[in-house]
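Here's what a typical entry looks like (Integrase catalytic domain-containing protein):
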Amino acid sequence: MCDTCQIRRSFPSPISGKPIVSIGFLTCLQVDLIDMRSVSYEGYNFIMHAKDHFTKFTWLYALPSKEAIHVANNLNLKINWPDLIIINGRPRHPQSQGLVERSNAVVQQMLGKWLEKNKTLNWPNALGIKCFNRLDLTDK
């Protein structure tokens, strides 16, 4: 390509995401699934990770599959808040859910350390313990 063509060529501008605004507890909740099929335990293959954007509080649930019925049974949000509006993020686009995606790595790291420390493979029982510790890295 010549110099003139190089100068005229448009370069894609970086995508700037819209900031997520949360004005209180449970006004913005991000949910993601962590694949645990490589270490499935008693039929549980996934972790549903829900995180409140305002308080950064986390809920973790063991799921047998990622079917909607299992996710809905654990969330129950529409029953508690009938005016809730659910906005779906883009599939296979983790950048749109940065808060929960970053926490997924922390969950997996802490879960692995807890399982190793307690010499067990029962990760579904460890989810409540990790959730109550608010996912801090104090138990390295």
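The domain at 23-87+97-139 is CATH 3.30.420.10 (Nucleotidyltransferase; domain 5).

More examples are in the samples folder.
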